[in-house]
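Take a look at this chain, tokens included, and explain the fold to me:
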Amino acid sequence: MRSTDVPNKTAAGYAEIQNRKMQLGPRQRTLLISIDGAHSVQQVREQFRVLGDITPLIEELHSAGLVQFKRLGPAASNDATGPASVVEVSEPMNVIPPLGLVRQFMNETAVDAVGLRAFMFTLKLERCSTKHELTDVLQDYRRILGKARNADQEYANALVSRAEGMLAAI
């Protein structure tokens, strides 16, 4: 796996998000949900640097058949920090609606951060059915993440930034 490779969910990855059969850990699941086929491995590493080295997590997801890589050739991109090229994938892309992925990402990361204290937030989140409604709850999302036992502001900012990026891509 090169830094310029672009990870994307496979059909098995989408199925795992919906069915939770493999019982992934919270970090792996968060990473799987956030992989979108538009960001290189290096960009994903930078977005999740607060989790430490996520390279083993990406490799585990790949080994489990949940993600695949599109290798960008030298002509396609030599800059790992720039925008990635459009990824051609043979697997179905729209198994889960994009809003559902964002909602699921926000729900799972909030629950992972604060446990049952996120209950009211998750109820509010479940009522969101549009991009605008999800954007409106981002401030609550930031507040919930700030209440975590180990309230790491850098971690909270990284997750909120990722949710904002996912919403911007819709």
Summary: The longest strand covers residues 6-9. Residues 75-95 have pLDDT under 50 and may be disordered.
